[in-house]
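In response to reviewer comment 3 from the previous cycle, which asked for concrete evidence that the modeling workflow produces usable outputs, we include below a single protein chain processed end to end. The sequence was submitted unchanged, and the resulting structure tokens are shown without manual editing.
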Amino acid sequence: MENKINFYQEVEILPSNNKKNEKYVGKKGGIMGASEEDGFLYGYAVKLYDEEYLLYFDKGEVVATGKQLKQEDFY
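The workflow returned the following structure tokens.
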């Protein structure tokens, strides 16, 4: 199984080939969910600090900042 980022851990959005996510590059938020099957990680549901809704990013589009947040930081 791959290393995955923990729930509520802060991440930053990285540049990628996904044009629809270009406007989010450099923004930060927290991991709210993970898309995985049979030990293969596809990506994450992320709540960016300045966005109202959850957004999906492929696993290569996010990097952990090292800051662990709590559930109550988002609700």
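The mean pLDDT is 93. We consider this sufficient to address the reviewer's concern, and the full set will be provided in the supplementary archive.
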